[in-house]
Amino acid sequence: MLRLFHWLAALLLLLSSSLAAAPKPNILLIVSDDQGYNDLGSLGNGIITPALDRLAAEGTRLTNFYVSWPACTPSRASLLTGRYPQRNGIYDMIRNEAPDYGKLYTPEEYDVTFERVGGMDLREVILPTALKPAGYKSGIYGKWDLGTLKRFLPTSRGFDDFYGFVNTGIDYFTHRRYGVPSMYRNLEPTVEDEGTYCTYLFEREALRFIDQHAGESPFFLYVPFNAPHNSSALEPEIRSTVQAPQKYKDLYPAVDPETQINKKYRYGAPATVTTRAARQRDYRAAVTCMDDAIGKMLDRLEEKQQLDNTIVIFFSDNGGGGGADNAPLRGHKGQTWEGGIRVPCIVRWPDGGVKPMQVNDAFLTSLELLPSLAAAAGIAPPKDVVLDGFDWWPTLRGEQPSPRKEMFWKRRDLIGARVGKWKWVDMAGKAGGLYDLEADPEERNNLAQSHPEVLKHVQARYANWIAEMEAAEPRGPFRDF
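The line above is the sequence of Arylsulfatase; the predicted C-alpha cells follow.
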C-alpha cells in the first residue's frame, strides 16, 4: 500500500507539472464596426468573406450572441470590462454632434469638447490589465473610442502597445474625424501614415505584433476595425458611404449611377450623396478588405505554429447600419430591436475543445468575454469588481447550457429586455411590444395583449435591473455623483 501511495503521489506530481508547463493560449479578439447579422459569405447573401468563412468552418458560430448597446462606445466598454454600460459608466457615446451638421472645429474649440475630454472611469479594470498577472503582452490596433486624453488611452489602461484612432469614426484615408487628425501611436498623435487606407495599417501593426510575440510569450491582440462603419468626413459624398480600395470594389457588380442629388439632405442644403446601390457595394468592399486582413493574421499564426493554441473571437460591436444586411432580424444599429443588438460571432479554439463546423444557439453576450478569457488564462477575474458575465467555455464545448437567462438594454429612452425566450421592446413609445424569440426572431408578432402576465414579468425584471444599476458603485463620465 505504501508503494502504491508513493506511485500515485508521483503520478499526481507529474500531471500537475505537465499542466503547469502547458502553454497559455494566445488571444486574438477581432471586432468589426456596424457589420450586419447576415453579412458572412457562408450565409449566402453574396458578400465575399473567405477568412470569416474559414473561421466558421474551423470553429463555432454563435447565433444568439448579443452586445450590450446598439452603438459603438458603450458596446466597446462592456466587452473590455465584462460590465453593463450602466455599471461601468459608459452608457452613451463619447462624441460631438456639431460636426454632423457641417461644423468644422478649430483645434482650440475641439480641445474643450466632450469628445476630447470624456473617457472611461480610471477605476475600471479592462482585459489587458486582468490578463497581465498571467504574463500576457497586449496590443491594440484600430478603434479605441474610450477617451483621447493621455490618462484614458490604451497604454495607460494596461495595453503594452497601441496604434489607431481614438474617437468614434474617421475618414479611412486622411485618418481625420470631420477634419481633426485622430491617429495615435501609444500616447502621441501621429500623421506618419496619412493617405494610407487604415485597414491596411491595422493589418500591418497586427502582423508586426504577432511576429514579435508569437511563441515568445502569451499575448492578447485586440484588433477593433472601423470597417465597415461609414466614413466620418464633412463632405456629403464621402460621409454617405463607406470608403474602400478600388480593387475590393471591383470584386462586386458595377453600379450606375454612383451618386445622386439629395434635395432633403439631413445635414443641410441639397447635396451630392452616394446612391443606395453604391453604398451597399462600398460597404461590402470594406468588409472584404477587412476579411483579407483577418485571413493574413490567421495565416501568420499558422506559419508560427500558434493558430490552434490561439483563441480567435470575432464579432461586430453592434448591429449593422448603412449598407448592412441584418436579415432575418428586425431593426438596425441604434435600435433595441434584435437587428441593433444581436450580432454575428465566431469562436475558434481547437486546443480548448471548441469544435469545428458547429452552430451554437445558446444565449450568450459580450459580457462573457472577460471572465471567459481570464479562465482560459488560468487566472481569477479581477477582485472587488462586479462582473455581469460568466465563463462560457462549458457552453461552447457543449458540456452544459448557457447560464444566461436575462439581458437588458437601455439607450436613452429606447429599451430592450430579454428574459428567457421573451423579449420586450419599447422604442420610445413609438413602437415595440412583447415577442417570443424562439418562434419569432424577426419580432413581427406582438404578444403583449395575449400574454399580459408575461409582459408584466419581463417589465418587472427590467425594473429590478434598473434598480441594481442605480445602486451600483457610481462611475463616470455620465453619472452624477
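Note on the example: Residues 276-303 form the longest helix (28 residues). The mean pLDDT is 94.
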